[in-house]
Amino acid sequence: MADKPRECRARVIAVRRLAAAILEIDLLMVEPPELAFAAGQWVSVPFGPKTVRAYSIASTPQSQKLLTLCADVAPGGLGSRWFRALAAGDEVRFKGPLGGFVFTRADPRRPLFVAEEIGIVPVRSIVGELYATGFGRPAALAYWARDPGWLVYDAEFLSLARRYPSFAYHPVMASATGPWQDAAGGLAEVVDRIVPDVEGLVAYVCGGERMIQRVRDRLVAKGLDRKAVRWEKFW
Ligand SMILES: Cc1cc2nc3c(=O)[nH]c(=O)nc-3n(C[C@H](O)[C@H](O)[C@H](O)COP(=O)(O)OP(=O)(O)OC[C@H]3O[C@@H](n4cnc5c(N)ncnc54)[C@H](O)[C@@H]3O)c2cc1C
Fold it and tell me: Is 49 inside any structural domain?
């Protein structure tokens, strides 16, 4: 069970650079010492009375003492500058856990995950938790990035797909021409190809608004109920 959202304090214990503009930080919870959350939830970092930035939890709920966040700092605004400046030993404050972009195991439907670049963060937590805790049913992931360097969790998903044949992993890279040029076109095409039948499907789509709309429209055109497309809009 996820905790109710509350004010939290944690300490940065590690910072890793996964790509030129993608950073991961490990946070050791201080107050409360453990945070129960559901995979796919996020925390809200305050920057002023009405200014916050949201960061999804990249790690799985099996670890409640140590949380990982992962950010694309290329946008360069308040949140990116804060993330970029974090160093081991810093104390951070946030509110969490928040959000309903979560997959419950009791849902009998077959999940399709679709992520655009940093939109992979909540999906990594959901998929990681499912397979670490014995989810034997089929699931698929389509993960788009502009180039291989931005596909930061690629090795992890490849390894998961090798170990669990029921997990179908479809990395997608931009190409100079055709529908694959951008995330919206590329992911809509891949979803079209890998989903011949929407019966019993539930989709989890995360990234930019344009991509979410295109993928949702494609799935709805194939007959999926609009409500069966869950989404988290990062930008
Ligand atoms: C529920 C939720 C969870 C989120 N989780 C994460 C996360 O785990 N990791 C993460 O990096 N971000 C995440 N975000 C986005 C994050 O909250 C910030 O918007 C992002 O870090 C940019 O903040 P900023 O202050 O640097 O730039 P801003 O000044 O707020 O944004 C500058 C512009 O860039 C756009 N933008 C923001 N992010 C991107 C992006 N990645 N690519 C292209 N354009 C973008 C914004 O819409 C805006 O137009 C999440 C957002 C939401 C709503």
Answer: yes
Backbone angle region of 231, left / alpha / beta, with phi > 0 → left and psi within -120 to 50 → alpha = beta
What is the model's pLDDT at position 44? 98
Q: Enter the tokens of residue 183.
A: 């995330």
Same domain for 59 and 134, yes or no, is: no
Give the model's pLDDT for residue 174.
86
Task: Categorize the per-residue pLDDT at 218 as very low, low, confident or very high, splitting at 50, 70 and 90.
Answer: very high
CA distance 86 to 178: 39
Nearest CA to ligand 1 atom 37: 235
Mutate to test the pocket of ligand 1, among 22, 94, 235 (most ligand atoms within 8 A of CB): 235
In this structure, are 52 and 166 located in the same domain? no
Ligand 1 and 72: CB distance under 6 A: yes
Tokens read off for 55 = 């960061």
CA 24 – ligand 1 centroid, Å? 15
List all residues 6 or more positions away from 191 whose beta carbon is below 8 Å from its beta carbon. 112, 114, 142, 215, 218, 219
User: How many structural domains compose the chain?
Assistant: 2
pLDDT tens figures, 39-61: 999 999 999 999 999 999 999 99
User: What pLDDT does 181 receive?
Assistant: 78
CA distance 98 to 115: 19
Question: Measured from the CB, is residue 214 less than 6 Å from ligand 1?
Answer: no
DSSP assignment of 125-142 equals HHHHHHHHTT--S-EEEE
Q: What is the pLDDT of residues 82-93, one digit of tens each?
A: 999 999 999 999
Would you say the CB of residue 99 lies under 6 angstroms from ligand 1? Answer: yes
